[in-house]
Amino acid sequence: MANPSAEREQWGSRLGFILAAAGSAIGLGNIWRFPYVTAENGGGAFVVVYLACIALICLPYLFAELALGRNSQKNPVGAIKAIRQGTPWVLVGGLCVLTGVFILSYYGVVAGWALGYIFKAFVAPGIDSTQYFTSFVADPARVIPLAGVFMLVTILVVYGGVEDGIERWAKVLMPLLLVLMLVVIFRAVTLPGAGAGLEFYLNPDFSKIDGGVILAALGQAFFSLSLGMGAMITYGSYLPKRENLLVSGGYVALFDTSIALLAGLMIFPALFAMNQDPGSGGPALIFQVLPEVFATMPLGSFISAVFFVLLSIAALTSMVSLLEVVVSYFVDETSWSRAKSVWMVGGFTFAAGLPSALAQGGSTFLTEQVSLFGVTGFFSIMDYLWGNVSLALGALLISIFVGWVWGTGRAVEELQQGSEDFFEGPIARVWVVFLKYVCPIVIAVIFVGKVTGTI
Ligand code: PHE
Predict the structure, then answer these.
(1) Residue 317 in contact with residue 111, Cβ under 8 Å?
(2) 228 lines ligand 1 (CB under 6 A)
(3) Among 226, 257, 262, which is best to mutate for testing ligand 1, by the most ligand atoms less than 8 A from CB?
(4) Fewer CB within 10 Å: C terminus or N terminus of the chain?
(5) Cβ–Cβ contacts within 10 Å for residue 402, how many?
(6) Centre of ligand 1 from the C-alpha of residue 127, in Å
C-alpha cells in the first residue's frame, strides 16, 4: 500500500531544508570532481562555460524540480504518475531512480577513498602522494571495505528518516568545511609558483572551448547541483507550502557554486606550485595534490585528517540524497517498508559498485581494457554515462515534462505559494521562457552536437 501523503515527513525548518539540499548538492562533485574536470577541459574557459550553465540552465531548471516535488509530495516516479498516469512519461521517473542507483554505486567508492585518506597523513607521511594514491586505490582489500563502511553509514542515516537523520548532520558540519577550505586556500595561494595556477584557473583561454568542453560543463553543473535525477523533486516533496522555493533554491545554488569555485582555488595554485601537468591527474587529482599542501602546513597531519573527515561527511550528505530518491520510490510506490527498501537498495548498490572499486588498478581488465564511446575504464564509463549523459537527458525530459505536459501555469502557481508576491509578472514570464525553450533547446543542441561531432 502506498503511504498516504498526509503522513509524509517534512523538513523541520527552512534552514533545515536549505542545509540539507545544500548538503545534497555539496559533495565530492564540488571538491573532487569539479577540479579535475576543470583541469581536463582547459581551466578558466571551462569555468566560464560552467558558470553560464549554472545561471542559464540549472537555476531555472532547479525551480521546476522543486515545484514538481512539492506539488506532488512524491518521489520522481510518483510525481510523474500523479500527473500522467499510464503514459511513457513514467519511464522518465524510472530513469531518475536508475541514475540514482548507478551514480551512488561509484560515488560510494570515491567516498571510501576519502574515508581512507583520513588516516593517510599518519600512516604514510612523506611518501610520494602519487605513488601512495596509485597503490591505495588498486588495493581491493582497502577500497572495498571502505566503500562498504560508507554505504552502511549512508543506510543508517537514510533509515533514520528525513529530519533526524539528514537535517541534523547537515546543519553543523557544512559551515565547518567552508572554514577549513579557506585555511587550505590561504596556504595554497602562498606557495611559491602558485601564480601560474591562478592564471590557468581564472584567466580563460576561449580557444579551448569545443563540444566536449561544453558537454562536460553542462554535465558537471547538473551533477554538482544534484539535478536531472529527481533528488530535488524528492527533497522538494518534503517542503511545506509556506516555503519560498525561489529563495531556498537560490541559496542552494549559490552555496554549491561557491564551494566548487573555492575547491578550484585550493587545487590549482598547489598543482602548479608542484609543477604538475593539470590534465594528467584525472580522478586522482585532489588525492595527489592536497597531501602535498598539508605537508607544508603547521599541524598538517591533523588538518589533513580533519579535512578528509569533513569531505567524507560532505560525501555522506550527498549519498544520503541519492539513496533517498531510490528509497522514497520503493516506499511510496511498492509495499516495501522503509527498512526493507533501505537495506535492499543499499545492498544492491554496494554490489553494483564493486566493478568501479576494482577499476583503478584492482583489475587490469576493468581499468584499461573496457571502453565505450571513447571513454576507457569502467569507473570513467560509469561516471560519463550516469554522471554526465543521463543527468543531462533526465533534465531535458523533466524540463519538457514540466514546461509542456504539466504546464507552466501550474508550475508558476506552485512557485508562487510562499514566494510573497515576488514571482509575478515579468519575472514569472522570463522563467517560463527559460524552462520551456532555453533549457530543453540548449541541452538538446549540446547533445546532438556532441553525438554528431558538429560542435
Ligand atoms: N551533487 C552531489 C555532489 O556534488 C552529487 C549528486 C549528484 C547528488 C546527483 C545527488 C544527485 O557531490
Answers:
(1) no
(2) no
(3) 226
(4) N
(5) 28
(6) 32
Q: Over its length of 455 residues, how does the chain's per-residue pLDDT go in tens digits?
A: 344 444 566 766 667 777 778 888 999 999 999 999 999 999 999 999 999 999 999 999 999 999 999 999 888 998 999 888 888 999 999 999 999 999 999 999 999 999 999 988 777 766 778 888 888 888 899 999 999 999 999 998 888 765 565 567 667 777 888 898 999 899 889 988 889 999 999 999 999 898 889 989 999 999 999 999 999 998 888 888 888 899 989 999 999 999 999 999 999 999 998 888 888 888 889 998 888 888 888 888 888 888 898 889 889 989 988 998 899 899 888 999 989 999 999 999 999 999 999 988 877 777 877 778 878 889 999 999 899 889 999 999 999 999 999 999 999 999 998 887 778 888 899 999 999 999 999 999 988 877 776 66
Tell me if 30 CB under 6 Å of ligand 1: yes
Give the number of other Cβ atoms within 10 Å of residue 1's Cβ.
Answer: 5
pTM to 2 decimal places: 0.92
Residue of 311, 374, 261 whose CA lies nearest to 115? 311
For ligand 1, say whether the CB of 27 is within 6 Å of any of its atoms.
Answer: yes
229 C-beta closer than 6 A to ligand 1: yes
Spell out the alpha helix ranges (H) of 73-118: 76-84, 90-117
Q: Which domains does the chain have, with CATH numbers?
A: 20-452 (1.20.1740)
Residue having the nearest C-alpha atom to atom 10 of ligand 1: 226
